[in-house]
Aldehyde-activating protein (Archangium minus), 156 residues
Amino acid sequence: MSNPTSAQSTLSPGLRTYKGSCQCGAVRFEIDFDPSNGTTRCNCTICTKTAWWGVHVKPDAFRLLSGGEVLGDYSRHEAMHARFCKVCGIRVFGHGDIPELGGAFYSANLNCLDGANLSGIQIKYLDGLHDTWEQLAVAPYVDPFSARAAAPHPTA
């Protein structure tokens, strides 16, 4: 079990730098974002089937630190590129240029952040399936693993 004091708390406002990686560690990145601005989940087929949970930032707030040579690229259309590690298969980040989302952006897979506690961060659910990017709902993230760790263990 990870040490909860080593996890980065994300609920207080302010721009922070987060580090992330794929499962095997071949692809590593940094991203600057303010967790109080919320995150996104999209209902398009690629995001749904890969359980994508992202945060959108301007291109200068994302830095690929290593692994460019092992990145694969999946594109549903020219406006969006889903980048994944060809070693372990994890979808690490994406980038594109979608006017409805504010133009050019990078989006990191928040499931790939190292040591970040995201409990309570707002998730905006977007309609990418129909390319409207309309906000469908907003809800706070609840980490099911932290909730289980905090619950009393049944006695045998």
